[in-house]
């Protein structure tokens, strides 16, 4: 090292001085010192500034020797290869800080190699119960013999894995309270030996701790009452709960429960439950929730909003009812055309569930429901879950079969489109393992589908779904020439049966049938489409131009969805009063031209039956003429046709006293079919008001008021 004159002022903390300042100091030193000192300083400066100039070997060695003695403060951040321990320390206000000082008064760890030898560790803590000094905080089971036995006793209990190296149970020991009978049975059944001794040890520990809570539970359940604080004791994971959903009785599987503070209801006991549902492809368990609000004193168990089914006074009858409905629910998978008369459940614009009154025919189709409403379809857990979060322990019979797969075999690949379950050709339907009785009892009371009258995706209650009462005389009552009726029906029925036998040059094009019905109002155009659908026993989807929207984008989106739904359901589609689409395009209305172009292009790929009705076809766009397979013009009704219409309406259960001469008189009045129906309806109301059958005088009164006589 080079000696430095003590009179020269040298910085004491060189690491706190900037690089430029160091150079100034070094320059000053060089001016005061000799050449040897100058060389050493230059070597130090070169080292600190990391410049790699080629110096003489002696200078380089001298500079290196001087920088070896670096303090920890001079080391780069994170580069010192050591572990530094800090310890938590509380100040007088209870705030935590970190210090290098090792805490005073620490004892050796309670659990070590010595305690690891014991079969059970019982960890106690000070009790605030006036009846005892200590209470158990937790129990650590270390015995492999105990773990094996507890694996059977606590099988499928949520949150418990008995194969862990460190198996800890914390107070208040819910698993043992819920499975106490199984635990005591296992203890009594165990043969003498080391495992028996270990079981006796654990039983003694837990019995002393749990005897009061178990005695209280047994006392409450014997009286079929329960307090809010003891609710958890009767809800065993995997048990069947009886509850109601929108006034419909149902059963759910209890998964787990806990007490907490609800932001609206205050203290509650919340229950996570599961219900059997269908997502259009498979059956599974959907998550649901139930709440029991806090109450004082005791309450009858059967008065709770959701309680174990075994406490129901009519348990056997309820099980039979739920099982019957569950079988119906299972049968309704896939596509079904049914009638419905009750309220259903829908969603408002804010996503809230609302009641919707439905009195019409419906389509049950969960697959389509999920496709057009993906956010409303629940996520389903497998029927047989290997997770502890979905317990399979049941208080039912033990005949629940274990399935490797819900399906066995498949006739064809249905990975695209609606899948075979939604195909009307039942020969293609996948074979599905039937659900067991223990699964069917949890079936949801709701089915997902579409209301044809209100055009809404809704959830319908299984109990209110019924078969359609078909009007077998609808097509016969249609007032049209026989050959014309036969042609229309032949076209429509053949399209349903053989729609895949003819295709365009481009795959998917030209598979549909389009029929144009034109003529004045009230002469049977709409009735024709309705009668064809009724005779074929297929859905009728009615829409008008207003249902599609006003902009080209709205029309394209709406039309694409509707045509897809209708084609998959093999439904008859009726586009009523479609003049806006049929009129020839002009150069002055570009938006309408765009709508017509979209309509034409979309129809090319439609695979179903489409009836178009219009009051005029004089100015039809040429592009439409080439796409229409049958065009029929309906003449105005003559006297004979009107007479037949009068008779058809009168024969539909109307109590009347009209003779042939009076009907012939009515037929001479030049009105259309819709007007005849309205006049009859009004006259019938008049007759009912007077509590007499319909007479000619009632019709004359109504016709006179309307100025038709």
Structure at a glance:
InterPro entries: AAA+_ATPase, ATPase_AAA_core, DUF7025, P-loop_NTPase. The protein has 709 residues and is an alpha+beta fold.
Task: Explain what the structure shows.
One of its GO terms (molecular function) is ATP binding. Residues 36-76, 380-429 are annotated as: Disordered. Keywords: Hydrolase. It holds the Pfam family AAA. By secondary structure, the chain is an alpha+beta fold. Among the domains are: 115-223, no CATH class; 229-336 and 366-372; 472-634, Rossmann fold; 639-706, Helicase, Ruva Protein, domain 3 (Orthogonal Bundle). It is built from 20 helices and 23 strands. The strands form 6 sheets. Strands 12-7-8-9-10-15 form a 6-stranded antiparallel sheet, with no helix packed on it. Strands 17-16-14-13-18 form a 5-stranded antiparallel sheet. Helix 13 packs parallel to helix 15 (590-604), helix 17 runs parallel beside helix 19 (673-689) and helix 19 (673-689) packs across helix 20 (696-705). The protein starts with 18 loop residues before the first helix and ends with a helix. Mean pLDDT is 80; it is low at 1-19, 34-68, 387-429 and 502-508.
């Amino acid at each position: 090292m080079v000696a430095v004159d003590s009179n020269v002022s040298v910085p004491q903390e060189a690491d706190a001085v900037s690089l430029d300042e160091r150079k100034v100091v070094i320059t000053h030193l060089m001016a005061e010192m000799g050449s040897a000192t100058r060389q050493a300083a230059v070597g130090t400066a070169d080292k600190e500034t990391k410049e790699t100039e080629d110096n003489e070997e002696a200078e380089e060695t001298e500079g290196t020797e001087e920088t070896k003695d670096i303090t920890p403060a001079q080391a780069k951040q994170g580069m010192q290869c050591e572990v530094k321990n800090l310890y938590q320390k509380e100040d007088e206000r209870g705030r935590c800080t970190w210090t290098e000082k090792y805490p005073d008064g620490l004892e050796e760890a309670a659990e070590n190699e010595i305690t690891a030898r014991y079969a059970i560790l019982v960890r106690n803590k000070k009790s605030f119960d006036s009846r005892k000094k200590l209470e158990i905080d937790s129990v650590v089971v270390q015995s492999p013999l105990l773990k094996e036995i507890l694996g059977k006793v606590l099988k499928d209990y949520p949150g418990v894995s008995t194969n862990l190296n460190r198996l800890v149970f914390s107070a208040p020991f819910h698993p043992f309270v819920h499975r106490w009978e199984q635990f005591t049975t296992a203890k009594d059944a165990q043969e003498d030996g080391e495992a028996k001794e270990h079981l006796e040890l654990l039983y003694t520990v837990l019995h002393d701790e749990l005897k009061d809570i178990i005695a209280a539970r047994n006392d409450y359940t014997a009286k079929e009452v329960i307090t809010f604080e003891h609710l958890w004791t009767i809800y065993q994971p995997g048990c069947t709960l009886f509850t109601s959903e929108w006034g419909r009785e149902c059963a759910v599987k209890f998964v787990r429960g806990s007490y907490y503070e609800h932001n609206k209801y205050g203290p509650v006991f919340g229950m996570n439950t599961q219900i059997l549902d269908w997502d259009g492809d498979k059956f599974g368990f959907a998550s649901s929730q139930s709440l029991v609000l806090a109450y004082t004193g005791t309450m009858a168990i059967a008065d709770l909003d959701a309680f174990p089914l075994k406490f129901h006074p009519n348990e056997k009858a309820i099980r039979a009812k739920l099982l019957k409905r569950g079988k119906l629910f299972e049968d309704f998978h896939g596509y079904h055309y049914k009638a419905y008369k009750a309220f259903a459940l829908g969603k408002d614009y804010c996503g809230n569930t609302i009641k919707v009154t439905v009195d019409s025919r419906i389509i049950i189709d969960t697959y389509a429901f999920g496709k057009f409403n993906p956010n409303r379809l629940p996520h389903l857990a497998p029927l047989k879950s290997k997770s502890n979060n979905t317990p399979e322990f049941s208080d039912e019979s033990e005949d629940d079969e274990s399935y490797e797969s819900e399906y066995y075999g498949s006739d064809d690949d249905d990975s695209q489109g609606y899948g075979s379950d939604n195909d009307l050709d039942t020969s293609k339907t996948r074979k599905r393992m039937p659900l067991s009785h223990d699964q069917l009892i949890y079936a949801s009371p709701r089915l997902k589908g579409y209301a044809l009258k209100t055009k809404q995706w809704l959830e319908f209650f299984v109990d209110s779904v019924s078969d359609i009462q078909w009007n077998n005389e609808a097509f016969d009552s249609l007032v049209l020439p026989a050959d014309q009726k036969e042609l229309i029906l032949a076209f429509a029925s053949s399209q349903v049966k053989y729609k895949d036998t003819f295709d365009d040059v481009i795959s998917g094009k030209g598979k549909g049938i389009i029929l144009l019905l034109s003529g004045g109002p009230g002469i049977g155009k709409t009735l024709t489409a309705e009668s064809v659908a009724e005779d074929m026993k297929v859905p009728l989807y009615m829409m008008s131009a207003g249902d599609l929207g006003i902009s080209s984008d709205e029309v394209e989106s709406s039309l694409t969805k509707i045509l897809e739904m209708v084609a998959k359901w093999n439904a008859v589609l009726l586009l009523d009063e479609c003049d806006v689409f049929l009129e020839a395009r002009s150069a002055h209305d570009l938006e309408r031209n765009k709508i017509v172009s979209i309509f034409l292009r979309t129809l090319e790929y439609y695979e179903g039956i489409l009836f178009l009705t219009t009051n005029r076809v004089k100015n039809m766009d040429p592009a439409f003429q080439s796409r229409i397979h049958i065009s029929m013009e309906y003449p105005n009704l003559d006297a004979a046709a009107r007479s037949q219409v009068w008779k058809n309406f009168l024969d539909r259960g109307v109590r009347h006293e009209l003779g042939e001469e009076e009907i012939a008189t009515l037929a001479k009045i030049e009105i259309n079919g819709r007007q005849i129906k309205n006049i009859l309806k009004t006259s019938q109301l008049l007759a009912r008001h007077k509590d007499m059958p319909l007479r000619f005088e009632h019709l004359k009164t109504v016709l006179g008021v309307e100025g038709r006589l």
